[in-house]
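For the sake of transparency, this paper describes our internal protein records without simplification. The remainder of this section carries one protein's record, kept here as part of the documentation:
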Amino acid sequence: MAKCLRSIKNQTYKNIETIVVDRFSKDKTVEIAKSYGAKVFVTNARERSVQKNFGVKQSIGKYAYIVDSDFIVEPEVIEEAVKKCENENYDAICIHNTSDPTISFWSKVKKLERDCYKDDELNVAARFFRKEVFGAIGGFNESLVAGEDYDLHNRLLEKGFRIGRIKAQEIHIGEPKTIWEIARKHYYYGKTIGEFIKKNPRRGMKQLSPIRPAFIRHWKKFVRHPILSLGFIIYQFVRYFSAGLGFLESVTRGRKEMHTPFYSQGIVTLTFDDCYEETINNVISILSKYKMKATFYFPTSFIGKKFEGRKLVSENGIKKLVKKGHEIASHSHSHIPVSITLLDNIHRFMISFLGSESENKLNFLRRSIKFFFKKNQMKNVEQYINDILKSKTTIEKRYRVNCVSFAFPDGVYNNKVLNILQRLGFTSARTSDIGYNHFKKLKPYALKVQSWDKCTTPEMAEKWVKKAYRKKLWLIEVFHLVGRENNDNYEYFTSIYHFKKHIEFLNKMKTRGLWILPQKEVMEIFSEISGKKEVVVSPASKLVRK
C-alpha cells in the first residue's frame, strides 16, 4: 500500500484528497495511510464493490478515481484524466494497466496479456469518473464479486456516457507469483461469475472468452516471445479450469453460501438496555478506547428521567453516543411489555432454558417465575404497536438517525407483534430468549441473547464468546446497569471491573477474526448476502483497496 500511496502523492495534479477504505486489517494499513495524509474509513463491508461505493460517497471532489492498493500510478494519470474530461467533455476515463514484469515469471506472462488490451474496446473498464455520472448509474453493483468493473463499464456504454482514454498508465505490482496463487484466485472468482453473466449475457460472455480479438490483433507479440507464450497457454488453462471448478461448486452448493466470508465469522454485538446515566458514563470511554461500537436501547418517555429508581441518560448524552458512531435503537416508549399467553410463556421458557449455559439455568428459572407474576403488561396489541411507533418516531426526529433495531420490553413478545415489526420499518428485534443466532436459519425479529446479571462473571462470558467464535454464530450480549457498587442488589448489575475485563478479552479476540458490530450493521450485511480494500482518488478524491 505504501508504494500505491506514494505514487498518488507524487501526482502532477495536486488538488486531490485520498480516502482509504479498510476492513479491520491486522497490519499497519491505518498507520501507513495516515502517514501519507489519507482519510481512513474502517468498514465491515465484505467485498470490494461495497468498499469502492462507500469510499466514493465519502469523497468531496468533482471526480472519483478508484485505485486498488496493489497498483502504482504514473505521475500524469490524474492530470491527464481531468484535462480529458474538462476539455473534451468525457464522462469517464479508461486507464491502461500493465503488470510489473520484475515480480515473477507469471507477472511477465500477465504483462504480455495486459498489453494486448491497450487499444481494445472490449476488455476494458473505466476507472476515473465524473462523480455525478458514477452516482447516476448506481456505482458498482454490490451483488458482484467478480467482473464488477466490466459490469460498470458496460452500463456506462448502455446509458450513452462518453468514455475516453489517456496515455499514462497504472502498473500492477500484486500479480500472483505461483500457479497455486493463480488457481486459488480464479477459483474464488469462478464461484461468483454466474451473477456477472446473468447481468451481462452478451457482452459479458465475450469479455470472459479465452479467445479474444485482442490476442489475434497482437499475434506478433506472441511470436516474438515463445517462452512467455507457452506460459500464457498454461496460465489460461489453470485460470479457466479453476474458475470452472469454482462455478460448478457454486451451482451445486449455492452461490450466496459459497462466496461470502460472513458465514465463516463469529460476531458479537454489545447491547445496553434502558441506558442508565451511570452505565453510559462508565462504558463510553472503555468502548472508545478499544474502538468498539454498540447498540443502545431507550424507552423514550424516560430519557433524562428516572426509570425504576435510576436516572436515564439525557438528551445530550444520547447525542454524544450518536456522534461517536453508536447505534440508537428503540426499547418502546413506555417500557410496558406486551401481554402473552400461558402457551407463549412456556414456549419462550423452553427455548431459553435449553439455550442457556448450564451455570445460567437456575438464574434464568428464577427470573422467568418472577416475570410470570408481573402485573404491568399491555394487553391491547394496537396500543402496544402505537407505543413502539412513538418511540421510533421520537428517536428519528430528535437525533436524526434511522431507528431500525428494536428490543422488546422485558424481552417478551407474541406472534402478532413479530409479524408487524417489519412493516413498521425495523430490520430486527431482540428478545430475552437465551441462546445464539445461526445465520443460516436466522430469525431477525426474534433474536436470542446472553444477558449479563449480578451472577455473571467474565469467565462465563468468555465461554459465550469462544462458542460464537468457534461455531461461527452471532452472540448478542445484553447489559443493563454497569457501575462500581451494587448497593441495592440490582438483578441486572455488572461491575465496571468485569465489564472492562470482558472488553479487553473481546479486543484480543478481534485480532483472531472475531467481529464486534452493532445490531444494525450485522443485519445490513446479512441483508446484502441473503437478498444481497480500495483507494479512491477524487480530484479532489481517491480510494485504496485493502
